[in-house]
Bifunctional protein FolD
Amino acid sequence: MTAQIIDGKAFAAKVRGQVADGVARLKADHGITPGLAVVLVGEDPASQVYVRNKGVQTEEAGMRSVTHRLDAGVEQIELLNLIYQLNGDDEINGILVQLPLPAHIDASFILDAIDPQKDVDGFHMSNVGRLATGQKAMVPCTPLGCLMMLRDHLGDLSGLNAVVVGRSNIVGKPMAQLLLADNCTVTIAHSRTRDLAAVCRGADILVAAVGRPEMITGDMVKPGATVIDVGINRVGRDGKTRLVGDVDFASASEVAGAITPVPGGVGPMTIACLLANTLTATCRWHNLPEPEGLTV
Ligand SMILES: Nc1nc(=O)c2c([nH]1)NC[C@@H]1CN(c3ccc(C(=O)N[C@@H](CCC(=O)O)C(=O)O)cc3)C=[N+]21
């Protein structure tokens, strides 16, 4: 069998188009332009690329984009003051603090200082709790993008066995919550799971978010399963590097029914969902109806 490839890049372009339509309507009917603030601490080159892409795509969708670049040695109190300033800024509807933060800064303290209504990453503890208890929340972008692709490909997810490999707060745990809310039978597996291959082979939906290049191989995939590869790992050296996922695409695509590629899968959907969340946050802030299909 050769898997169907789920084109995240094309899907993301469609989502960004929907966001742009929603933004145009907000402007025309209410004179509101959503604004997204991205805060980048330090000069990690990979982070800089993401931040630039986010800024460009935000403006393409008709929203305002502001980027705050802070020195790697910035004091925690200075970062905190910037968050408070953005919380109180009427022009800003979404705040994203790029992770990871330098070790001298308490990341969860910073994330919990963001106004939950402007928390477009969905990392504030109140949004984490709201998602876990089935209340309206801001949902983390990467798992939201994965869920959109799964619903689009499979339709109703009810009763399917879903295995999420990885238990991070930013992907694994919220992904499991979303799948559970869509009536999947969910297993969260991780590096210490006994006989991981056998657990994975039980999955109709297999989400790989472990951060280990090409760890999920074809023998771990149930024939016909839908495989979502969240990993973005740069491998190789001497200037000859390439991106690979957490899934060994060559062997897994022989067995799976459908699979997301890296690059061009989950990554572009993450940014599209950031824009979607910014629009959603803006609508909720102004008590206006939310556009359909852009959130759960
Ligand atoms: N608070 C916070 N929120 C984030 O969402 C966040 C973060 N911090 N820190 C860094 C990671 C990384 N991240 C990516 C988003 C899109 C691509 C993406 O679009 N990747 C392209 C490839 C890009 C390339 O070629 O390098 C793809 O997969 O096709 C990658 C990585 C969001 N992150």
Observations:
- The mean pLDDT is 97.
- The chain has ten helices and eleven strands.
- The first helix runs from residue 8 to 30.
